[in-house]
Structures are given as structure tokens and as C-alpha cells.
Amino acid sequence: MRILLVGAGGVGESFAMIAARRPFFDALIVADYDETRAQFVAQRTADPRVTARSIDARSADSVAAAARESNADVVMNACDPRLNEPIFDGAFAASCTYVDMAMTLSAPHPEQPYERVGRTLGEYQFAAADQWETAGLLALVGMGVEPGLSDVFARYAADHLFETIDEIGVRDGANLQIEGYDFAPTFSIWTTIEECLNPPVVYDKAAGGFHTTTPFSEPEVFEFPDGIGPIECVNVEHEEVLLIPRWVDCNRVTFKYGLGNDFINVLQVLHQTGLDRTAPVQVGDATVSPRDVVAACLPNPAHLGDRMHGKTCAGTYVTGVGKNGQPRAVYLYHVVDNADSMRDYGCQAVTWQTAINPVVALELLATGRWAGTGVLGPEAFDSVPFLELLNDYGSPWGMQDRPT
Question: Are residues 74 and 186 in the same domain?
Fold first, then answer.
């Protein structure tokens, strides 16, 4: 397998550092608009299989040309989702397998944004599913941690733990602290603003399928494992709600994130002042996107690992009737301690936890344990090989039975 890794930011760097310890690929070409950054990541791995090059991921033609010149089998998208469309199209043009960790962007319903669904996450990609299947190509979308591992957990619960499923609720929480900053997101603020301020989508079979609600709605206190403890979680727009019902039979799917009141207040102020907008505005002689300015003013999350302390948890809470015919509630989860990911890989916990999952998926594809064509989510594949290999990577997952 020859992999063209598009994007050398925090997640791309973590991907390269994890993959460099595995034997399943022949070449990993780290590509970025900033070739110096790509070279830094390649050199950090100290792996002769890993090289660097420049790329303009805004152009499908540029992505296709880079894939062909690299003799790539796989285009691995480690950019933020605003670049998904050209990278996705470029991979198809080059006849490559495509993998990403977040799907193409949504757009709210123009008249009823908090009741009805507009353009959904991944709609652009799933519209091309027949085209990919006819060409015999695979696009594995949403293969990060959330979405990604959370979807694998949903598949595992449906196949091995439950007879019927009432709700699949993805729940994400952390107790991470960053020294020296009053406000410093642990992940891309551009993406965080996008998913937190868009209308969250909820799947409810009895109510006719998908509908939207207001940001930060339906707060609930969820108990996270491994010492993280109780955190209030709220509705956030996320891919799992769109992906899981395609392959897993259940009555309801939700995604709730433990943001905290301080973080929510900052996001609300950004929205109220218009600083969350992506459309450029004129400032003197310059034209700038307000959201890009916010991102430029905040510290790069990839560089905060040495100031970060605590753990992050991603998981899937499933309720329904177990295989024994009795009511059951289970939380399947994955916890990463920042001290461990920094010590072992020099990568902060959130980017590392995101990146390990596409590495595992690519190893399964390289060895033939996963295979498929079309545009598929993680739920379309057997969960057991993935979870076994995740353990083999030295990053075990966990499961807790919860009161029903």
C-alpha cells in the first residue's frame, strides 16, 4: 500500500507517527500546502518509507496529480472538512481508495433550520456512491474517532450485544486542562465552531427520521470512565447521526458533547458578534474571513501537548434488549491519557486519538480483512477485526454495563 496523506497538521502528524511503527504500507507521502511542514512531519517519523511533498488540496486536479505522481493506492484526507470535496473528487479521478475522518459540510435549512434538515453532512459524498461503486473504488468516510470508532462500537453492539436497539447515543467528554490559557481548544477551532453552532441533527424513527434542534439542547449529565467523572453533555451536529441509521437498525441516534459552560459561552459570543462567519469581510485594504481570524488568534492545538493534562474519552452508549431478552444499557469507550500519547508519540491526546483509527482501518484494508466498494461508513464493516487490531496497537477499548 502506498498512501498519500493530505494534510500535515496535528492529526496528520499523529497519523504519520502512528503509521510509521506498522509494517503494512510501502510508502507514506506527507503532502501539505506548506511543504516545510510536511517535511518536518516526515523527518519526525525517522522512517525512510515516509517522504514529503507540496499539494494544493483546494484543487481536485492538484490532488489527482499528486496521487498519480506518488503512485498512491490511497488518498488519506487529514485536512479540515472544508477541503473534503476537492480531495474526495481528486482521489476518484486518480482511481484511489479514499479515507477521511469527517464528511463534507452541511448547510442549514433556509427557512426552518432548527426543525428541518437542510443539506446534511456527507450528502455530497453519498450522492456519488453509485459512481464509486461502478468504478470498483472505495471511499471510507468518517473514519476518525468520532465519527469512526464510535460507529464501529455501534456495529459491535448491534451484532454481538443486543437483540433490538432503542437508542445509540455517542457521548464525548474529557477532563483536559491546558496550562497558561484561559481559552485554548484542543482541536481545530474552525471545525469546532462549524459542528457546535450548526443545528444538531437527531434521528428518531418514530418521528419520521431526521430532524434538527437548537445548538446545545437537551443537556444531560453523563458519567465518563477512568476517573474523568460526570460531565454535562449537549446536542452537537455530528456525522454518526447520519451514518449509523444507514447500517444499524435502531429507534434513535444522538450525539452529545461535554463542552462545558465556559466553552459554550465563548462559542455563543462568537456567533452573536458574527465572528463565526466564513464569508469574507472587508477590513481596511484586506478581505478576511472572521472565522479564520479567530483561528489565527488562538494557539495551534497540535502544539499544546506539553501544556495539556488529563484524559479524553470517546464512546457509544447503547440501550435496548440484550441477547438474553432482558433490558440492557452499555457504554463502549476509548480513553487516551495525554501523558501517555505525549510520552510514547510526542502527540497530544485529542489528535492522536483521532488519528489512530484511520491507521487501523488502512491496515485492515491492506491485509484484506476489510474490503468494499462505493461510499461506506465504518458501520458497513465487521467491527471485531478493528477492535482486535486496536488492542494490538496498545490502545485498548473498554465496555461498561450501565443501569437500565
Answer: no
